[in-house]
Each structure stands twice: as C-alpha cells, then as structure tokens.
TrEMBL record:
NCBIfam families linked to this entry: S21p
GO CC aspect terms: ribonucleoprotein complex; ribosome
GO biological process, one term: translation
Protein name per its UniProtKB record: Small ribosomal subunit protein bS21
Organism listed in the record: Arcobacter cloacae
Keyword vocabulary terms for this entry: Ribonucleoprotein, Ribosomal protein
Gene: rpsU
Length: 70
C-alpha cells in the first residue's frame, strides 16, 4: 500500500503528485481496473496465449534484424 510522508515545506499539490506517482509505480490503478470484472480462466489463458505469441514474434523480428546486420 503506497503512502507518503508530507514534508513541512511541501504543498498539498506536490504531496498529491508524489502520491500519484507512487501509485503508478505500484500498478495499483492498473490492477484495480483488471479486477473490476470477473474474468473466466479461459479468457485469462487466451490473453496469455496472445501475449506469448506477440513476445515470440517480437523476438523473432529482433533476431532477424540482428542477423541481417551480420
């Protein structure tokens, strides 16, 4: 859980900005949006398959790009 200590010379806006940055770094907003609706296991597996395919194609693209330079 993110939390910040407000400094004496710090305004509310600055403290709020630091708090928002910390929330973004901890992926709190992203996780809450992902958990907003129930997702069946089949949907999760489908997304994992798609992301694995994208990752593999990206690696293949980078490898071919690297080999073309040789």
């Amino acid at each position: 859980m993110p939390g910040i200590k407000v400094k004496d010379s710090e305004s509310f806006d600055e403290a709020y900005r630091r708090f928002k940055k910390q929330c973004d770094r901890n992926l709190i907003v992203t996780e809450t949006r992902a958990r907003r609706y129930f997702e069946p296991m089949t949907e999760i597996r489908k997304k994992q398959k798609i992301s694995a395919r994208k990752k593999m194609l990206k690696r293949l693209y980078m490898l071919r790009r690297y080999e073309s330079r040789l």
